Amino acid sequence: MFRLVIAILSSLAFTLPAAAQVQPFPATFHTQEIPTNGAQIFVRVGGKGPAVVLLHGYGETGDMWAPLAAALVQDHTVVVPDLRGMGLSSHPAGGYDKKTQGEDIAGILDALKIDKVELVTHDIGNMVGYAFAAEHPDRVTKFALMDAPLPGVGPWEEILKNPLLWHFRFGGPDMERLVKGRERIYLDRFWNEFSADPKKFDEASREHYAKLYARPGAMHSGFEQFKAFDQDAIDNKAFLSNGPLTMPVLAVGGEKSFGPMMATVMRAAATNVREAVIPLAGHWLMEENPADTINLLKDFLQ
Description:
Blueprint: H1 2-15, E1 30-36, E2 39-47, E3 51-55, H2 66-72, E4 77-81, H3 98-111, E5 117-122, H4 124-135, E6 140-146, H5 156-160, H6 173-179, H7 183-193, H8 203-213, H9 218-227, H10 229-241, E7 249-254, H11 261-267, E8 273-278, H12 285-288, H13 290-301
Parallel strand pairs: 3-4, 3-5, 5-6, 6-7, 7-8
Antiparallel strand pairs: 1-2, 2-4
C-alpha cells in the first residue's frame, strides 16, 4: 500500500504543472551588494557594451526588469538595482528623498567603474532617475521615463488632485499597523486599480512582490518614499532653476494611465522629448504590454 501511495505521488509530480514563477534574469547576470551613501544596494549586473541602468518603482523591485534585461544583455551592460528600502536592499533610517537616492545610483556606478549610462525608469524610479540626471547630466546619454510624474515639475499640483493618488499621503505608525500582515491586500489595490486589465499582473508576480514587501522594515521604507515627495518637489524646482535636461528623453505613458501626460511632464523638464503611448496598458507597462514596451525601449536605446 505504501509503495502504491509513493507511486501515485510520484506520478502527480510529473503531471501537475510547476508553480508559476516570476521570470528570472539571464544566467549570465550576477548579483552583488554595493555599499554606498549610507545604504547597501542590491544590484544585478550582466552583459557587455554601453551601460544601461533600469530603475523600478513602488509595488515592485528590480525583478520587474528581467524581460527587458534579457532583450538588452547581448549589446549592453545592464545594471538593475533595488532602490534603498526596497527589495533586497537595506532599510536605512533616512535618505528616501530622491536627490539622496540619485547619489545612490552615482555610487553604484562608481563602484562598478561605469561612467556614462542610458537610463530606463518607471514610477518612483522616474523620480530617482531624474534627480541623478539633473545632478549628473554629463553621465546620462539617454533617458526613458515610464508612467509617473515628477514632484514639483509641470502639472504636479493638478496631478495631486486625482483621488486615486491618496496613497501619496498614506503613512505613519498607525498606517503601518493597519497594513502589517496585510501587505498583499494593500498592494493588490495598486496592481488592480492602476491596471487596464488586472489579470495582466499575474498571481506569481503578486505573490513574489508581496513577500518582499512583507520583509521587516519594507512597508515603512515604502511609505517613506512617498513621505519624501514634498522635499523632492523642493529639490526638483532647484534642479529646474539650473536649466532643463538636454539629453534625448523618451516619455512613455500607458494608454489607460498617464498616456500623453507623461510627455507634458517631461517637456517641463527637458528640451529633447519624444512622446510615446503604450496601447492596451495601464500603469504596469512591463506586465500589461511587455512586447510593445520592450520594442519601444530597444529602439530608443539603439
